[in-house]
């Protein structure tokens, strides 16, 4: 086969065979294909798209390009959750212990990633002593013993995706729905779970700004998951506001602990229960969504979820006393309120801008090698629909320096719009793709 033929075929809108896509992925992983040709092929895919059959073949080949985890020693099926990413999304931190408390094992590899904050792994690392690099043996043994284990994504997982993503990032071809779907689902499939709940975020703080586009991505990912023989469901959730009240690594762990103590922000609770109920349903632990929500509520308000969280922290080398004393988490040297100049109701939050503020404070990575600052971020005192008096805090900035806090405060005021009249609340869950 010739790479130039592959490029011509896609350029002209024709469909690749599974054998061609296998050849392509093996060539990428083996370093046999020049970057410029692979990049040209990505651009052809960007314009011509892919059939669901092609997207599935590409995904399966990418999943098989490196290590594939074997979770067969655990009670089946293990259900994994994936989020397409948003500001303040700490659902994995609270769902992992709740799902484990419901008797369904959580055994998850998680990426560090680029973004406004780190990934779940970076957030957990803000707990003093918490180890995120587990050997395969410890990973499985821990999940067998306490029901939950989380480790950093290995370098050997989906090497084809690493190479392809870097080329897409450098050639303006990340925003291709079949390439996004293949990238996400290949890593999920290689992670070894038997089913997936995909949280596809939609809104001004999400990768997908438009509901129809998000639906198309969700439908394709669900089709790929099912085509690979896995139970797969997508939930379309609102990212026109940060999720919960905190964005930042240690700040989100603090909010997760408060949540598990029963002090849940209503939006975080609603999204967590919807995702968690789907996970329990896919695992066969409950018959339907209502039963799933009730079960999770019981585990939350009885403190069982918090108990499992403490065991999880201890099992991975962290100090479990952090659940009783969240002040043990590292804190920022400068904490300043952002006061509302006028009164009224919060109408709109420019979530993408708020995400950039959090990243600029140092909570996220722009480059893979960047070091994350665990202590910085934002706490939102007011969310859409809530009333605010003149001079009342809209938010709180956690920063390293006064200058950074002042700059972030000015940006927060730009990002949060207050109007005299309340506006209609947006739904938090737009729908399910099953
Ligand atoms: N997240 C991924 O893992 N891959 C993409 O292509 C986009 C978002």
Characteristics:
434 residues, alpha/beta, Transferase, Pyrimidine Nucleoside Phosphorylase, Chain A, domain 3, Pyrimidine Nucleoside Phosphorylase, Chain A, domain 2, Aldehyde Oxidoreductase, domain 3, 3 domains, four-stranded mixed beta sheet, four-stranded antiparallel beta sheet, 13 strands, binds uracil
Helices and strands in order:
Layout: H1 3-11, H2 18-29, H3 35-48, H4 52-63, E1 79-83, H5 91-101, E2 106-110, H6 120-125, H7 136-146, E3 148-152, H8 159-171, H9 177-190, E4 195-202, H10 211-227, E5 231-238, E6 246-247, H11 249-260, H12 266-283, H13 289-301, H14 304-315, E7 334-339, E8 344-349, H15 351-363, E9 377-380, E10 387-388, E11 393-399, H16 402-415, E12 416-419, E13 429-433
Parallel strand pairs: 1-4, 2-3, 4-5
Antiparallel strand pairs: 5-13, 6-9, 7-11, 8-10, 8-12, 9-11
Helix pairs in contact: 1-3, 2-4, 2-8, 3-8, 4-9, 4-10, 5-12, 5-14, 9-10, 12-13, 15-16
The structure holds uracil.
